[in-house]
Amino acid sequence: MTRPEPVTLLELNRRLAAVVASTPGLQQVWTVAETSDVRIAGGHCYLELIQKDPDTGTAVARARATIWRSTYERLARRFRAATGADFASGIKVMVRATVNFHPVYGFSLNIDDLDPEYTLGDLLRRRREMIARLTAEGIIGRNRALPWPAVPWRVAVVSSRGAAGYGDFIHQLFTNPRRLRFSAELFPAVMQGADAAPSIVAALEAVAARRGDFDCVVIIRGGGATGDLASFDDYTLAARIALFPLPVIIGIGHERDITLLDYVAAMRVKTPTAAAEWLAARVGAALDRVADTGAEILRLAAERTAREAMRLEAARAELPLLARGIVLDRARRVGPDTVASLEQCITAMLTRHTDALRAAGHLIDALSPEATLRRGFSVTRIDGRALTSAADVAPGARLVTTLADGTITSTVQDQS
């Protein structure tokens, strides 16, 4: 058997390159894949396209790809305008590519176009899948179901320490128009990139360890590109917020920005400033309710006092008439038997008092000075005073002696 004349590797590769270049099905083919190892050098974009097994996540196909500088500048601008994100690693893309085979560098793809809507749709699809999972697990509405404190003034803040959004939140919270007082403590976290989700989860765990010190949690970040907010479309982070023991407020991005966290938090506001305004409004409403209740209590008390005063005045006017009526009524109820009984009681009482007076009179008569004089005693007076001592009488003194049947006047001649 005659062996064919061998060819060099260069010749073989040239033949392959010619076949690839002449095959219509390998020119400007739209294909979908995930980007990896994206890097920019000299204005050119070098990357790798990967297809992964949906069940295991392992790569089942790989291809090197290039976007030349003149094309990349145009495609990059269009991609960012549509998705809000930079063309980078780890995103699903739909690209139009032509297959190349270089004798030295081998197989590669030359990308000349892409469809940003495919990438945007993939992000939304992933979000819908996570929402469906959270719903199936029965936890998507847990945080929203938590009761809000009447006055949520103790706030735990999860944000980047130097972020403008954090500064805006604090300024708005502590300079609110009604001068309401709040307490806010920062729990720092990375708010962008691959480390954002685990960093925020760690900050939430720190808050949960001191849950008794706070009424709610605010997770805030200023606006940015859609790609910058991709880290908030994270299942683990969303699940932690859904099961968090305190109400969570999400104030991430601008009004147009939506992330998975907005579906699980107790409250979603459009910006960090809006989060502060919402808290101030809620506390202000609680104070208004207290003031309204106090005013209502005063009104009811005044009405009750006025009613009772009127009743008292009416009672004061009716009392004499009521008393007179009672007396007349009792008088009408007094019959002949009652009158006879009263007469007997009065007669017996008068008899008792008459006998007592008669006995007292006899005693007075028996003890009177006249009765004493009748028994042989006399009373001698000098100058109208009863004489009790001989030493009180001087010679020549005039004495008056009272007897039972008269008086004797005498002059003292001698005193012995």
Summary keywords:
alpha/beta; five-stranded mixed barrel; rod-shaped
Q: Any overview of this molecule?
A:
The protein is α/β, with parallel strands linked by helices. It has helices at residues 9-22, 69-83, 116-136, 164-174, 196-208, 235-242, 272-333, 336-367, 369-374, and strands at residues 29-41, 44-52, 59-67, 92-102, 106-114, 154-159, 183-188, 216-221, 248-252, 267-268, 379-382, 385-386, 398-403, 406-411. The protein has a 5-stranded mixed barrel. Strands 7-6-8-9-10 form a 5-stranded parallel sheet. It has 9 helices and 14 strands. Helix content is 44%, strand content 23%. A hairpin with a 2-residue loop joins strand 11 and strand 12 (385-386).
Helix content: 40-55%
Oligomer: single chain
Low-confidence stretches: none
Q: What class, by secondary structure content?
A: alpha/beta
Count of separate DSSP helical elements: 9
For the record, give the distance between the C-alpha atoms at the N and C termini, rounded to a whole number: 203 Å
Strand residue percentage: 15-25%
Number of DSSP-assigned strands: 14
Element string (H = helix, E = strand): HEEEHEEHEHEHEHEEHHHEEEE
- Strand order in space, largest sheet: 1-2-3-5-4
Q: How would you characterize the largest beta sheet?
A: 5 strands, mixed, barrel
Name the average pLDDT. 87
Shape: rod-shaped
Radius of gyration: 58 Å
